[in-house]
Every structure is written in structure tokens, then in C-alpha cells.
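User: what does the whole thing look like in 3D?
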Amino acid sequence: KNEVEQSPQNLTAQEGEFITINCSYSVGISALHWLQQHPGGGIVSLFMLSSGKKKHGRLIATINIQEKHSSLHITASHPRDSAVYICAVIKLTSGSRLTFGEGTQLTVNP
Amino acid sequence: DTGVSQDPRHKITKRGQNVTFRCDPISEHNRLYWYRQTLGQGPEFLTYFQNEAQLEKSRLLSDRFSAERPKGSFSTLEIQRTEQGDSAMYLCASSFDRRNTEAFFGQGTRLTVV
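Assistant: Here's the predicted 3D structure for the full assembly of 224 residues, as C-alpha cells:
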């Protein structure tokens, strides 16, 4: 079983829909990252969380440390949001390196 | 400085050949990481440098793999005697030397071994 699991693996939405991607982890962490990866490979950091909630534009990320769960929400989704969204954690036992989930492929249709 | 850069972006090589990739991190960043990502999977950790010191290596990093960061600036990742299973995206990331700091990723080098 992976230490970081995401759901769903694939998600197709219509433009304007509210989207939620979930991440659960089974290890103690010091922080959790949400990352975005477009075709071609480059990864962009969206959020880093250690507690609570963060918002940036149409993106909202929440984390519940007790339940070992985080969610990424996209409001008013747009085709340009189509990408792979990856949850990654910094484990308490692993220094500063990231341990990644497998990613969620999001496709937003016009 | 415009971010982390990796070179080349794509590499096709024949099985058995050696390849070398380069990563130039953001200049103020002490930490540099190499990750490998196969199709449809999340990235996996390969190795980590703090300045020029290689502080951690994954078990994924077989004897055919070697990484250096000779002056604490750019890093190279070499794969000797490539195998088809080495085909993947090789990602480099850098960050400041403090806990829970954001990592900045390069565009990656996509390796195809034929």
C-alpha cells in the first residue's frame, strides 16, 4: 500500500464545475504539497500546507492532520486547469525530500 | 535566475549506452533533489544533495547510476549501460536549506532507451 494515496485517479468535468481531489497518507508528516504537472513534465508547486486551509485564486487546499487527509478544490473549473495534480508529503522521518502520490489526471471539457 | 533548468529535455539512446543529464538549480538554493517518474506514476526519490554533499540515496539508485554536485551549484546524473527500464522522466528540484520549504522543479529530462 502506498504511503500517499490519491482519489480519483482520473476525473473528467465540464467547464464551470466544482472539483475535489483527495489525498490520504499513512505516515507522520511535517508538510503536504499540492503540485500541478502539465503535459511535457514540468511540475509547479500550488500549495504547501501543514495545517488548516489555503486559498489562491480559484484553488483551495485543506488539510486535516488528525485524519491524515487533504483535499484540493477547484472552483469554476476551466479547460486550462486540465493537468495532473499530485499530492506529496514531507515525512517526519525523511528529512526534506518529497514522497508522492500517483497523481490525479484532470480533464475539463469546454 | 529564471528557475530550475534541466538539459537535455529529451534523450533517446540505445540500450547499453551511457547518458548524462544536467540540472542547474536556482542559484540561492542549497538543496538539490533528483526524482524519477515513469508513465502514469508519481515521481520517486533518487538522491539529494545539500551543497556539494550527497546526503541520501534511494535503493532505486543502482550501481549504474551516479550523481554529482561538484561545486554545490549544478548537478549531473549519469546512467551507465542504460536498460529499457531506465526509460522515464528524470526531474530535478531545488530548495532553500530549511524545513518545510517549497521545492522548485525543472521541466525534466525525458529518457527513452531503445
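In plain terms: The mean pLDDT of chain B is 93. The longest strand of chain B covers residues 88-95.
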